[in-house]
Amino acid sequence: MLTDAVDTLKELKLGPMAERLKQWANDPANRAKSHVECVLALAQAQAQATATKRMRRFLDQADLPVHITLEDVWVSATRGLSAEVLGNLRTCDWVRLGHTLVITGNSQVGKTYLAGALAREAALARLSVAYWRVPELLAACAIEKEHGTWPTFLKRLARVKLLVLDDFATERADTPQSHLLRQLLDVRHRHRQAVLVVSPNAVEDWDTYFEDPTAADAIFGRLLERSQPITLKRMPRSARR
Q1: How confident is the model over 26-50, as pLDDT tens digits?
Q2: Residue 108's CB: how many other CB atoms inside 10 A?
Q3: N or C: which end of the chain has fewer CB within 10 A?
Q4: Contact between residue 6 and residue 15 where contact means Cβ atoms under 8 Å apart
Q5: Which residue ranges make up each domain of the chain?
Q6: Based on the number of CB atoms within 10 Å of its own CB, is 70 exposed (0-12), middle (13-18) or buried (19 or more)?
Q7: In CATH, what is the architecture of 64-231?
Q8: Are 199 and 169 in contact (CB under 8 A)?
Q9: Of the candidates 170, 160, 171, 235, the residue with the CA atom closest to the CA atom of residue 196
Q10: What does the alpha-carbon distance between residue 60 and residue 194 come to, in Å, rounded to a whole number?
Q11: d(C-alpha 163, C-alpha 157), whole Å
Q12: What is the value of pTM for the model shown?
């Protein structure tokens, strides 16, 4: 019967559940446990595998190493990131509450690495994550608008619990692009979905990268209303990320 159950789960493409079922059945400590506990263990195994798959897809999109972890993030007051702040972010409560995290700093200070490590924590906490470099996102939005699929694309991005916007305010957005980004952030703001912004430029310099000032004001308002800023500073060569 165990073999039949394992084979059925595999046929349903529930491999992690199948493996967990075999482990459960072969562990004498589980013999006194209830069927409900077994089902819960199988569901948790499948959910964790799904979260890990999402996390790996995110890291691949962001071109980050699969071994990325918050343990490798260097914390220091001189760097602009304290252990207390990082510990609070690690809980992912800011994602669940739909807040915005804004990470700024010069090139090569570890902004994208920190963003990736935080997004990994969110994915492992079973929160959906999407990664976009803003110039590529704006180009994709324009294509979706041209093809008439913008509403569907917008709805898909609106559902993601954490949207990472890397390379924010690095290339000038024209008026149509600015309004598309505003629409996206409007929807996410209404649904209280979290955003993680990564930019090499200070917030006060962002307006120069958006052609339409009205759209720019709306974008900044949405991003900064429930935001926490982190400005990373350069660290010694011998220090970790």
Answers
A1: 888 888 888 888 888 888 888 777 7
A2: 9
A3: N
A4: no
A5: 2-59, 64-231
A6: middle
A7: 3-Layer(aba) Sandwich (3.40)
A8: yes
A9: 160
A10: 21
A11: 8
A12: 0.76
